[in-house]
Amino acid sequence: MKKILTLSLLRTVAVVVVLAGVVGSISLVLYKGRNNDSVLLIALFVTWVLSPFIALLVANVVSKRWSNLTRMTLYSLMLVLTLGSLVSYSGALSPAGTKTAFVFLVVPLISWLLIAIVLPIAGSLSRRLASRPNKTKFL
Question: CA quadruple 46, 29, 14, 92: dihedral positive or negative?
Fold first, then answer.
């Protein structure tokens, strides 16, 4: 019962953080691109920046049948990617002279790569642990 409650709390926190990350990311894209006259370019940046967040929220919806290990990995990934994205977009860690657009192009790409690598590994590991004759519980 305690594990389910902890997982439920982690899920709630992760969803709230991702939604706050969506608002923060949109705000930072619009703020950093305020001098750009191209509405199309700003719209494309907003779409690209939001795409990993949308993927994480969709994964959250379909994850109800996933193992506890895979869901915990998803929720952790939601927290890490959101916080990392916001820090990156704010420019707090950017070296001097870095083009603003570079961060808004690379961070979503890295987020997508992490989602595409980490979640399948967690799912595979979870299936492997479940098929053990010993049935060792990971979570």
Answer: positive
